[in-house]
Amino acid sequence: MSDLVRNIIRFAIFILLQVYLLNKIPFLHRFIAPYLYFLFILWLPFSISRMGLLVIGFITGISLDFFMMTPGLHAAACVLIAYLRPFIINILAPKDATGFSYREPSPRAMGWTPYIVYTLVLTLFHHSYMVLLEWLSFGSILDFIIKIVATTGISMLLIITTELLFPRRMKFRTNTA
Amino acid sequence: MRNIFLFIRRFFTFFTFLLLQVTALWFLFTYNRFHRAKGLGVGNQITGWFNTQYNTVEDYFKMKEENRRIHKLNDSLMNLLPANFIRSDTSTHLLTDSIPYDTLGHYRQYRQRVAQVVYGTVNAEKNYFQINKGSKDGIKDDMGVLSSEGSLVGKVINVSPNFSVVMSLLHVQNKVNVLVKKTKSSGTIEWDAKDPRFLILKNIPVSDSILKGDTIITGSYSLSMPPGKMVGTVAEINKDPATNFFILKIKTAANFADLQQVFIVENLQHDEQEVLLEDTKKKM
């Protein structure tokens, strides 16, 4: 399966999962809102250009926004993490060439610790920006901080579960064995 | 000049980033005006299609509960049938029909339509739900929406040909005029984004004797909501120490998490009332 087809399928699955499963979870607490869809952006291939990343990020966000009836909210957060992604990868990616024999960021390609740092940083940016925009018109500073921490915790739990349930072993075919 | 081009080329990604950010934020902060624009109407049609597909599956899980509520409402309507009442005077009989004017000079002010909820949330600060009737079925902005038990759930804010978006009572910008049924004092109900089972009612003076379980109904000052519809019951009574008012926690009558069938209420005099209000503003 080519990268393009795989990512289109993944896009549909992530958006529908977010809209029809995670947003439908019965109310637990006001600080808990499970988010997973942005993992699509974190899983995009290394080879994609920075411009492409920004445009894909915007499309991902705005698609979810049309379902949630909040035009611009998720789009803004997705564009932010799409812009920051290459910088974080540059810092965390292994310096030797073996790291780049993988197509996309995964615990196998980067190692568990760097991968978790990578997802944690981008999740934190995504949620902080989104919650900030959401609460600009409403709410107090303490609520704002608790909500960022709680939603980031839930998202990290979901991301790690996803990684353990669906390990991706995708390697470029090279002649280095 | 060359330097400017070099500068733009060097930071091209950054400028694209800024451009997309500004677009997204513009969408977000102009939403209240933007939602009438064409772009969102098209988006509404597309998400509406997906939501309808999902809803056909979801319906099976909620059917039993919905059936019970419909039955209850039917039961209360059956009791209102003229056939239940015996009239001693046989020379007149009660006429009820659906044309706007009857011979006694009664006119119809509210008309109800049924619709099905295809998608909705309760977890966000601004909750909306989508229903499967749109401008083709005569739905317009600002119509009130009632649950299948006849209690208030929200109002229509955006319409596309086949679907409409309803702002739920669970929305931080939502404000509805309500009455305490017992004392007839009016206040404004709002939501504090904390718990989707409870709304907040302020502006009821402490001189009123409010008890737990008192009924809250819609007031008569709204152009879109019919008066006297159930909103909820008082669940918790707090006094605001700063002012002489209660802060009441209201348990909603409708369960927003499993809305299926709703009624859309049209005020047939809405346009006339609104024109009058606008004209009055101009004269003042």
Short synopsis of the structure:
The complex is a heterodimer of chains A (177) and B (284). Chain A is an all-alpha fold and 177 residues long. Chain A has helices at residues 3-22, 39-42, 50-68, 73-92, 107-110, 112-135, 141-165.
Give an overview of the whole structure.
The complex is a heterodimer of chains A (177) and B (284). Helices cover 66% and strands 0% of the residues of chain A. The relative contact order of chain A is 0.13. Chain A is mostly helical and 177 residues long. The two termini of chain A are 22 Å apart. The radius of gyration of chain A is 16 Å and the shape is globular. The mean pLDDT of chain A is 85. By secondary structure, chain B is of the alpha+beta class. Chain B folds into two domains: 2-34; 35-80 and 103-284, Thrombin, subunit H (Beta Barrel). Chain B has five helices and twelve strands. Residues 89-96 of chain B have low confidence and may be disordered.
List keywords for this structure.
heterodimer; A: 177 residues; mainly alpha; Arp2/3 complex 21 kDa subunit ARPC3; globular; B: 284 residues; alpha+beta; Thrombin, subunit H; 6-stranded antiparallel barrel; 6-stranded antiparallel β-barrel; 30% helix
According to DSSP, the number of beta strands of chain B is: 12
Q: Specify Rg of chain A, calculated over alpha carbons.
A: 16 Å
Q: Span between N and C termini of chain A?
A: 22 Å
Instruction: Classify the helix fraction of chain A into a percent range.
Output: 55-70%
Q: Tally of extended strands of chain A?
A: 0
Describe the main β-sheet of chain A briefly. Answer: none
Could you tell me the CATH topology label of chain A.
Answer: Arp2/3 complex 21 kDa subunit ARPC3
Q: Tell me, what is the CATH class of chain A? A: Mainly Alpha
Q: Which residues of chain B sit in consecutive blocks of at least 5 with pLDDT less than 50?
A: 89-96
Which assembly state applies to the chains in this document? Answer: heterodimer
